[in-house]
Amino acid sequence: IMSIKHFINCKFHLFIRKIATNIDNFTEWTGKIVSWAVLLMVFLMGLIVLMRYFFEIGSIALQESLTYMHALVFLMGAAFTLKRKGHVSIDIFYQKFSPHTQAIIQVLGTLVFLMPVCIVILTLSWDYVISSWSIREVSMEAGGLPYIYLLKTLLITMPACLLLQGISEVIKNSLFLFDKIKSEVEIDSDA
Question: What is the pTM of this model?
Answer without folding.
Answer: 0.83
